[in-house]
């Protein structure tokens, strides 16, 4: 039996006020192609389907198209849980009716011990889902004393293990932060100060653990306790991450097999560093000049409208840093530059705009004009 594990779609997300919906549609189309190519038996989405509790209308339309293709056209059962960016109440609306079309939404805490079972060639796989929840929700739902995320998550996992059958393969789906795993800038903290971390040890007994929340593909504790990562980069801190989905394969006689399937972005997200002139020349021949960029300029002198110049060759420069212009020989401003006269400053200004120094006649004309104005 084969299934795809994915998470953190964040449909409807904006980055530096730029909508990423077109980029998300591009990679989700690749996910659909993987479903066809690999002939999988199920799709697992481990939370953060949307980027916010009230998603934009065009984001809802995109998710509807994607799930209709997977569940209705391809007839692939899809199991999902809400994440911390989702509204569990909105996500699970109509869940009972949607089961008939193959969409299984596991959004009720009270139902964590009720698995979705999929059978293929005599092999049964039971999928248990823990939607994102805070300790207070677990206390109120089960009337149990838990004060931390770790205690709450461990309690739910132990309740599931009480009903697990060794005659089935057992998969846990959870949206949480496993202690010690690598995080990115684009993830919203569940709680300040590390109190949101949970232990991986209670999860070891499952045949596979499909995690969501962290955006980097990785495993923690054991190889079968795994984050698929987000479907695309959502911050510049993720520029070196290899995004994709995880193909999981069960065999009744063999250990679980896990394979990372790469997703190619419509526009990559990367950081470029160097002097403005070098970056401008590079942009003229860069085949990926449409990427989303953070540009870090190393020039030491002031530059007029660097963003405008950059966007002539890199239209999707989203953020500009100029650390070199803040460097001085001391903690105070260079006093010599402050002593520059009006004529010297205008010469610098002209050379930046025209790309060359003023002629003798121009220099004389400006000098006379400055003298006249100062009188």
List the helices and strands and how they pair.
Layout: E1 2-6, E2 14-15, E3 18-19, H1 21-38, E4 42-45, H2 57-73, E5 78-80, H3 88-91, H4 95-98, E6 103-105, E7 116-120, E8 123-130, H5 135-142, H6 149-163, E9 169-175, E10 177-178, E11 197-198, E12 208-212, E13 218-220, E14 222-227, E15 244-249, E16 257-262, E17 269-274, H7 276-285, E18 292-297, H8 306-311, E19 317-321, H9 335-338, H10 342-354, H11 360-374
Parallel strand pairs: 1-4, 4-5, 5-6, 8-9, 9-12, 10-11, 12-14, 17-18, 18-19
Antiparallel strand pairs: 1-15, 2-3, 7-8, 13-14, 15-16
Helix pairs in contact: 1-2, 10-11
Describe this entry's structure for a reader.
It contains eleven helices and 19 strands. It has a six-stranded mixed sheet. A six-stranded mixed sheet has the order 7-8-9-12-14-13, with helices on one face. The protein has two domains: 2-262, 4-Layer Sandwich (Purple Acid Phosphatase, chain A, domain 2); 269-374, no CATH class. It starts with a strand and ends with a helix. With 375 residues, it is α/β, with parallel strands linked by helices. The longest helix is centred in the N-terminal third of the chain and has 18 residues, at 21-38. The chain has helices spanning 21-38, 57-73, 88-91, 95-98, 135-142, 149-163, 276-285, 306-311, 335-338, 342-354, 360-374, and strands at 2-6, 14-15, 18-19, 42-45, 78-80, 103-105, 116-120, 123-130, 169-175, 177-178, 197-198, 208-212, 218-220, 222-227, 244-249, 257-262, 269-274, 292-297, 317-321. A hairpin with a 2-residue loop joins strand 7 (116-120) and strand 8 (123-130).
């Amino acid at each position: 039996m084969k299934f795809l594990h994915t998470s953190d779609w964040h449909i409807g997300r904006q980055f530096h006020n730029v909508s990423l919906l077109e980029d998300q549609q591009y990679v989700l189309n690749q996910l659909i192609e993987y479903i066809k190519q690999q002939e999988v038996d199920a799709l697992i989405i481990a939370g953060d389907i949307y980027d916010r509790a009230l998603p934009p209308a065009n984001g809802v339309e995109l998710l509807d198209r994607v799930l209709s293709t997977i569940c209705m056209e391809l007839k692939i059962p899809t199991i999902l849980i809400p994440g911390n960016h989702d509204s569990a109440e909105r996500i699970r609306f109509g869940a009972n009716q949607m089961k008939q079309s193959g969409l299984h939404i596991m959004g009720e805490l009270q139902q964590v011990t009720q698995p979705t079972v999929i059978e293929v060639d005599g092999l049964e796989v039971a999928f248990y889902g823990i939607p994102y929840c805070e300790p207070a929700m677990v206390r109120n739902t089960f009337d149990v004393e838990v004060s931390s995320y770790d205690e709450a998550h461990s309690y739910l996992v132990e309740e599931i293990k009480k009903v697990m059958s060794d005659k089935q393969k057992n998969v846990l789906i959870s949206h949480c932060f496993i202690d010690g795993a690598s995080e990115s800038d684009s993830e919203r903290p569940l709680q300040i100060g590390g109190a949101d971390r949970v232990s991986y040890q209670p999860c070891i007994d499952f045949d596979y653990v499909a995690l969501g929340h962290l955006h980097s593909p990785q495993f923690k504790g054991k190889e079968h306790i795994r984050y698929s990562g987000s479907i695309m980069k959502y911050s510049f801190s993720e520029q070196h991450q290899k995004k994709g989905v995880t193909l999981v394969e069960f065999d009744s006689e063999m250990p679980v097999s896990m394979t990372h399937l790469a997703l190619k972005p419509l526009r990559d997200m990367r950081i470029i560093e160097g002097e403005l002139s070098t970056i401008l020349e590079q942009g003229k021949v860069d085949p990926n000049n449409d990427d989303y960029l953070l540009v870090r300029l190393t020039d030491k002198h002031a530059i007029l409208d660097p963003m405008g110049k950059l966007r002539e060759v890199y239209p999707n420069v989203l953020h500009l840093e100029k650390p070199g212009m803040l460097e001085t020989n001391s903690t105070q401003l260079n006093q010599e530059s402050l002593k520059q006269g009006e004529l010297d400053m205008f010469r610098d200004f002209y050379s930046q705009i025209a790309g060359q120094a003023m002629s003798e006649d121009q220099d004389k004309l400006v000098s006379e004009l400055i003298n006249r104005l100062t009188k």
